[in-house]
Amino acid sequence: MKALVTGGTGFIGSHLTEALIRARVQVRCLLRKTSDVKWLKGLPVEFVPGDCNDKASLEEAVRGVDWVFHLAGATKAIKEKTYFEVNGLGTENLIHACLENNPRLQKFIYVSSQAAAGPSRNGINKKESDSCEPVSVYGRSKRMGEESILAHAHELPALILRPSSVYGPRDKEIFVLFKCLSRRIKPCLAGPRQCLSLCYVQDIVQGILLAVETQAKSGEIFFLSDGNDYRMEEIGDIFAHAMGIAALRIRVPRRMVKGVACFSEYLFKLFGRPCILNKDKAEEIVQEEWVCDITKAKTLLGFEPRVPLPEGAGLTFAWYKKEKWL
Ligand SMILES: NC(=O)c1ccc[n+]([C@@H]2O[C@H](COP(=O)([O-])OP(=O)(O)OC[C@H]3O[C@@H](n4cnc5c(N)ncnc54)[C@H](OP(=O)(O)O)[C@@H]3O)[C@@H](O)[C@H]2O)c1
Q1: For residue 188, is pLDDT > 90?
Q2: How far is the centre of ligand 1, averaged over its atoms, from the C-alpha of 75 (Å)?
């Protein structure tokens, strides 16, 4: 089998690429001029130059592959329009490239996000059939990508996956929490009741690989997480335990989260770089509930998360230590 992975240089995409190679799939990765291939070094990967925003560059990339795994995405950006250009229009471009250049494509997997659905409410885990109420520009742009998939699901065999927050080796977002804990600070951002779903990166990869094999009908959507709901404070405790440290809980009021986000966005803009904690991210962080229901993925895909949070936290911390990130 032959697969195209977009976003193969990124956190989840690099783990997926390794897993595909282990499964003896021939992997082609889309590579921008600016891409850093450090996670893919030494792997038997065919690199094809291309950018989701450059439709012509995608034609060669999609030709002759059996599967497309679309993970390329703007997860942080300086300008709001970048999210829509990459996550929305970029997805539309890739769909058209497939329709026009690869009529025999067997499966197109779009890795969307829980952010496209928006937060859960009133202690009820969000289901795929619930209405989408994204609270961030990022979430709205991922939903735009989903809508493109849904509009073409009759002519392109496509599935949509919505991972919860993903952690593991190479991740730079939840790494911020590890970093705070290493300074003995356990931040409590949106009150003591804040809870969310999480998933170790290898379990997300398992979900993506199951999706490509399933007979589920085109256009189906699946949430992916480890199946548990965690209070933010509990996550801090589990991570701190994995790190072998005790940390002091610091309550950060919502308004302060937004203030810090404004300031860091301003600072990073001065240096022309996108930052992880920007105003848009703050809109997501201050929500009280980000929990999803993975019953559908378990039933239709056979998805069975294997890595419990304490184990995943230990593996992730060991990697950060080995790579001297901490
Ligand atoms: N990490 C999470 O917690 C999480 C949760 C839910 C969903 N997701 C989704 O999962 C996907 C992967 O996330 P990640 O955390 O692995 O992200 P990441 O580490 O930031 O990687 C993003 C990837 O997208 C590529 N990319 C960005 N703009 C592109 C463009 N215009 N054309 C082609 N490639 C482009 C990047 O390539 P370069 O190397 O060239 O920059 C990189 O390979 C994203 O779509 C994200 O929305 C992530």
Answers
A1: no
A2: 6
